[in-house]
């Protein structure tokens, strides 16, 4: 009975989030509260268990990076990059979109897609404001590109870290098995954006000429602070890249980096904290508790066990079910808690497969489905939620369905391409 109640609360909350009939932060707080009051989450453990509660690694990673970005913003470097990008693209909207998507997709495998969006989104908003064009299509395209690009490596997307830990897969394993299909999917996505956003590519020669006349170097307001910030940011990025070797969580790297950044900037802490997207952090905490209700009452495990149990010994069918099932479920339940919950189920199935290479194929199908499914809806991945929060705060609000109508198209196409890739590489 408790499983049905938890599922009902989740679906009602998701309805209000999707239709935007109520503020999403209020919705998740009410839903999370109901889960706790009705005993559908594991009591106080919801604050301590990353599998059945709030994943503080994600929360503090976001918090630390928000502080870092807030301090870097004070140097004027985002305005500098905005003018530089506008001049490089000569004010041509589609050329600008491709440039921003390429930067995002290349950075995401090494920074992780959430960090990349937090760095690129402010630049995007500034360049769009300079060119007097709507920022929403560019932000949506960047988030989709980030989720695609982040799938290429172990550290590029949080679900990959979970899968890598469970399956014993290394950074190089992900690079060899995931990067080839990611490159192909991204190339198709670049062409697809020309069609999806065709109504947004309005070129204004006057605004473009005005931007071309600007000197981007004048945008830097504090060169000395910028130098110190870039050194700290470089160390943070190195920490992200080496976190698996040093056995230090990315959240710790981000928090230490934020502390060092505050020290070298010698700025007012209260002023920097105003740059933190508190509503986004609260939304994530509420969402994690909502999903914890589904985990604790066995809803997600029951779905996964039933789906995999019904497949028998046909491992290609199992891989297909994992790929498409993860794409669908990951789009609605947030792919981080979904992967954390489903990974033990996949591990159990793989352990029963005699051929290790076939077992690995299931892991790659699982990873591709979860990563590409992160584009499915506005709440499917951390990068999506962060981008929508930044957009709303800057006056360029993106609605749930405005994002989702593009995300669904990209998810369907990328998942079908991933399915063909899995079949050709592991089962043909």
From TrEMBL:
The keyword Membrane applies. Residues 15-369 form the Citrate transporter-like domain. It comes from the Bacteria. It is a multi-pass membrane protein. It is found in: Cell membrane. The chain crosses the membrane at residues 58-82, 94-111, 174-192, 225-246, 252-269, 281-309, 315-333, 403-424. The keyword Transmembrane helix applies. Its main location: membrane. Keywords: Cell membrane, Membrane, Transmembrane, Transmembrane helix, Transport. It holds the Pfam family CitMHS. Belongs to the CitM (TC 2.A.11) transporter family. This is Na+/H+ antiporter NhaD/arsenite permease-like protein. The lineage of its organism: Bacteria, Bacillati, Actinomycetota, Actinomycetes, Streptosporangiales.
